[in-house]
Amino acid sequence: MSALEEATQSWWMRAGTALGFHVPVVAFALRTAFAAFVALLIAYAVGLEHPHWAAMSAWASSQPMREHLLSRSIYRFGGSVVGVVFAIALVLVAQDSLWVLAIGLAMWGALCAFLGNLQRGYMVYGCMLAGYSAAMVVLLHHGPADSVWPFAWDRMFTVITGVAAALCISWCFAPRRKAAVLIAQSRAALAGVLQAAAAGLRQQPMPEGGDYAQLLSRLAAVEELLELYPEGSRTARNTSKAMHWQQHYALELVYQLGQIRSVQGGADIAKERVWTFAALAEEQPVALQWSLAKALDELVAALQAEPLQQAAQTMALSQALRHAIVACEDVVAGIQAQEKQVQPGINALYLLLQEMRRGLHAEALDLLGSTDTHKSDRRAEPLPLHRDWVGAREAAVRAGGTLLVFGVVWAWTQASIVAFGMLGLSVMLLVFSAFESPGRTMAFVLRGQLIGAALALLCQALIWPLAQSAWQMVWMVLPFALIGGLLFAHKRTAAGAMDINMAMFILLAPVFPDTASLGKHLSMALAVVSGPALAWVVYRWVYPTNAQRRMQTLARMMVQEVPAMAQRLLQEGKPSLWTEGAGAGSSLWQAQLHHRLLRLVRWADKTRLPGRVKLPRMGLSLRAMQTAMLQLQQWRKATILATPALRRTERLAEVALYRTVEWGKAAPSAALSSKAQAAWERLAQQPTLPAVLAAQLLRIAQRDIPELDAVRQALR
Predict the structure, then answer these.
(1) Euclidean distance between CA atoms 221 and 215, whole angstroms
(2) Are 357 and 332 in contact (CB under 8 A)?
(3) Is the sign of the CA dihedral 121, 441, 23, 474 positive or negative?
(4) Is omega for the bond preceding 513 within 30 degrees of 0, making it cis?
(5) b/e burial code for range 194-232 (CB count within 10 A of at least 16 → b)
(6) I want to staple 467 with a disulfide (CB 3.0 to 4.6 A). Which of 384, 450, 472, 702 is the partner?
(7) Which pTM value belongs to this model?
(8) Among residues of the chain, what percentage have pLDDT more than 90?
(9) Which of 278-287, 289-298, 678-687 reaches the highest mean pLDDT?
(10) Calpha distance 132→183 (Å, rounded)
């Protein structure tokens, strides 16, 4: 690029910024607006009944990155197909009975809301689209049941036209996703964890940024980026899967580091021996210990280098990783040669290094842009991630119940204006139910739809009356489409700008001559904007949801896992009745807890929650308490109750588990907490228990239950 071109570009960028535009977004917004107009033009040319639906599909499908554009378009098409198929079946079954249609739509909307809130990425959008696509066909169809087929085909062809227009136009300009950005952030977070581990090996203070809470925040930031990263690319999906496993093992190592500091900082329980990094110096010569720390330092330096699309850099990182693994194996071999147990911290470090080696192959393929994915490591068992069952259930009740109420009104009055408003309400209750704060989002949506309705009324009242043909009406929409694109890129109207264009195009149905009065156009506009207004009321009063409430729900789910695990362990029965495989799959809860903790920390960081400093301690207590209960159960399973002392320990173990169930399932109570703490303290004092296990059980009483009590009180 010449100096003159650079100067010209800088001038335009400065001018756009001065006018309040997001300059990088302007090009995307204008090409999307043009794609929407082209979709409208093509749909009208081929004679589709609702060409403006094609323009709406083009806006809904467009994404800034090429892979996301492809994935969203696929889910747009797939969700529309599923929704239209259900709508056809419902209309044919109902045979003009509005009551059957209302009940069927309510049930379908509830199902789509439930499934959508359990998904991730653009699968959420696909599920929600299936819900309101069915509503579009059912609520806007007029006439006998058999006439639904042309209407349904029209819906499908408009979606195909809009998706195709968005793909053809945006594909030429949309950049590919930048794998190096995510990989660099993931490696930086892993480097921070390894730095903290190296400091632990040297018995030194944690480095800057190596605090337990800070490490969690860095890992949580990576977790958020993994939400949409795998969309549209098999290579990216393999990378995302590898990073999820790295996150899991990194968090396991962070937990062990947190355990060390907790034990070292606790005056009452510091006397108990804990097999972590703190005990390593007693098991191995200092030379091996420092050799591993040095290898970790070299690996950290390699991870902190900027990821490049060069095989040489991958080889250097692979070599540093191999040296760290060999050094860790030397330490493990030395411990095992003395017939002693490998510390959990060393074990977690080794597993993380091994997972990083497997993940490095997937990252290298992603950086180099290779489609040869058979070389990357694929696990048969997927990492169990968090699913918001509570939020999904609430969204289903909210959407299904509201649609049922308005459906009854529609069936009773048979008013088309009620059906039109019900359509907008179904979109609001489905699409935005998965947002962090849907009620707050409705304010921006309402503002956007008011602007879009105003632009549509302006076109209908002042511009379309000048048209001499239907084609002129279509072409007169072009300036308004471009205005919608500019509003999408402006800082003041960016929030809710998608709804500006959606509301504008749903009202701009070119029919020549336009015989509808201004009052008719105004009533239709009011019906459109009534959707977000009614949805705002529903979101405010029916299971009110915001980011803080979602965090509280997630934290409650995490805390409730403790009494749930205690209940399961009690239900396994006496040790003599246990069967082989009891307690199998215990590692799955660790992975799910890790993922939930990262999501919770990220939400707290984004919302600047005042009490977020307690979250790392909560995660530490949850992990430690469940681990201790599982290890207690394993001891009970492996122990023959041949002496009175062992039988007494068994009875006290059952009492402690029972008290934990009572403590967790009831409302926070000082009396129940005291009983649970006393039960665990009595159990920890039994001489028949191994010293390490006794120390863990004592920490349940002295640290974990008080920590979780504070969280439960804060969540009330």
Answers:
(1) 10
(2) no
(3) positive
(4) yes
(5) bbbbbbbbbeeebeeebbbbebbbbbbbbbeebebbbbb
(6) 472
(7) 0.84
(8) 24
(9) 678-687
(10) 37
